[in-house]
Specification:
The complex is a heterodimer of chains A (170) and B (162). Chain A is an all-alpha fold and 170 residues long. Chain A is built from 8 helices and no strands. In chain A, helix 1 (3-22) packs parallel to helix 3, helix 2 packs across helix 3 (51-69) and helix 3 crosses helix 6. Chain A is globular and about 50 Å long. The N and C termini of chain A lie far apart (60 Å). The longest helix of chain B has 46 residues, at 116-161. The radius of gyration of chain B is 31 Å and the shape is elongated. Chain B starts with 12 loop residues before the first helix and ends with a helix. Chain B has helices at residues 13-23, 33-54, 59-82, 92-95, 116-161, and strands at 89-90, 108-109. By secondary structure, chain B is mainly alpha-helical. The chains are: A mainly alpha (170), B mainly alpha (162). At the A-B interface, helix 1, helix 2, helix 5 and helix 8 of A face helix 1, helix 2 and helix 5 of B.
Amino acid sequence: MNWREIETRFRQDIWAAVYRVLGNEQDALDCMQDVLVEAFQKSQQVQIRNWPGYLRWLATRRAIDQIRSRKHILTEPLTDVHDLHASETQDPLQLQESVEAVRRELTLLPHSQATCFWLFSVECLTYQEIADLTGQTANAVGLTIQRARRTLQARLAGRLQQTSDNQHHP
Amino acid sequence: MNTYLPSQNDATELDQVTRYLRTMPIPACPLPIERLDTTTSARSRNKLSQNRMGDSRTRPFVVLTAIMLTGLVAVTFVIKRDSPAAHALQTEHSVSPSGLTARSPILVEVIPDDSPHNAGIQRIQLLRRALSSLRVEAERQRAARQLNQLRRRLNDDSLAAQ
């Protein structure tokens, strides 16, 4: 598969991966440019067997790098909030807040935990695919994801507790 | 593709977030194909350059030219720096800007106002500063609107509860 073919075939996948992590178009565009350049350079050096997996891994990794380097999390316009797919169990505003909280907490996790968790839970890659991309065993990937999941859940629960305490004792 | 999808009943907040992120609407990629093509042309340029560099007959000539060019640039730089036209850096004695003490000589960069190049740069810097202020202000207003909306909502909820 030549570069032009790869680019045409997977550009929407890369775009979707960076957009999911970053949540806004301008940052996603910057990140996508970086990912394309890096992927192109890599394609000249080594043979990539799993292009879709590799590109999602690279896009996720670079997007997480980008949110780590942000000085502050931007607020979302209300129109976007109203456009949310309303979950059956959660208010759209609450859901949006939770999404932002997960993005924020993701930056506090070790890089490999954050990337593995996101690739598995959001990008739907298997343990084996992630293991091939990161050079770990599938078991190690499973453990890393579980650890990330536990940490994120605990932090989200802590955040909810804090919010409820603030409501009771303003 | 993995098949991990928690059921609706045991879904935690984290599961709801990941489910939303998996199914969230993604806009079409706004990056035009032509922009992506720049990497392709860069590749062909690189390849051409590599071919040139790889040719053993021309390599000594290329190295010699590179050394000569570097030397030329260095000499030009030194001449420019030492020339009387280099008024860019002056001490405070010759510039005497207001608010500076005369104790220590402080280097001050003087940008001639009549140069169209510098005027352009200044204009760009001004616009960039204005843009960043506007961004901050827009963010503040957006956050304030969101907060008001939430307040109204809470108010309505508490009224409904009463």
